[in-house]
From TrEMBL:
Residues 19-135 form the Rieske domain. It is found in: Membrane. Keywords: 2Fe-2S, Iron, Iron-sulfur, Membrane, Metal-binding, Oxidoreductase, Transmembrane, Transmembrane helix. This is cholesterol 7-desaturase. It catalyses: cholesterol + NADH + O2 + H(+) = 7-dehydrocholesterol + NAD(+) + 2 H2O; cholesterol + NADPH + O2 + H(+) = 7-dehydrocholesterol + NADP(+) + 2 H2O. Coiled coil: none annotated. Its EC number is 1.14.19.21.
Amino acid sequence: MTTDTNAMKRYPMPMPFGWFAVSYSDELAPSQSRAVHYFGQELVLFRTEAGKAVLMEAYCPHLGAHLGHGIHERSGTGGGRIEGNNIVCPFHSWKFSPEGECVEVPYAKNMPPKVAGKKCLKSFPIRETNQVIWAWYHPDGVAPLWEVISHDEANSDDWSPQDRYEWIIHTHPQEMAENAADPAHFKYVHGTASFPEWETTYDGYFVRGLQVANMPTPRGEVKGSIRTGSAGPGQGFTKFEGIADTFLLGLTTPIDEHKVQVRFAFIQPKINGEVKKGGVNAAIIANIVGQLEEDKPIWEHKIYRPLPILCDGDGPIAKFRKWYSQFYAEGFDPRAL
């Protein structure tokens, strides 16, 4: 495992800002809460009785109890209890709204002036689509600069339930995303027969790519394509078309500056209303998961080279880094040491 000290030498970049997955929707039921750690912060994630998902600072402004760790019957299994739209601190039952306001101190004659009518806990902007709960993170508290993209494949009964995979990886999210601008590694790491050729378009906070390729099958070649995209640093998506259509949500969320949580959610179209299992469908998913497993030890042990020595066969790494640098509030220079 990489230590934080070593990681600080490996990656000088801060955490990027953007929309990030903090949970799948079906992992958080109404009136449920739990502790989570993202963006280098202790947080509490909960859903109100009405079904609204909320992410906020975890530590009560009263005496510092963690709202994500319950007591009594909730000890070890959940966070503070939910009453209506509010989360209740397990220590003294102070109640907080989804906006982070203290709405009740049950034993106080008067609300403390420092919290009365004020937001005393930071609450994150939330969106819920694609069967995912998304939180907007910006270190300076800037409001969302773009919206989460909703995908028909992830929100339709015509497509299969999500087939999910998850990893904790000791790396920086930029290092993972840079693979898309590095076609040469596909041959030497993943064993592809040739270097993939991509058409890549950078457009503001978004990037899209297209690879058109004929795919060999026992019955001859099948025309196929791979369409990739990213909305900021946290929402990646890929659609494989040809032998077995497959849609992939690739979700990368910073835990801290040197560690990320990666979620892959695969979705495939139903055939005559039924989910097709096994065969080519399963093989495509296994291949993609296997590629991440092959990349993981490289990511966890490499360093960031701000001025890499590149050759004429390398991909547009400098262009990618310039695009990605816009997601650093501190204005990080991709050429910086």
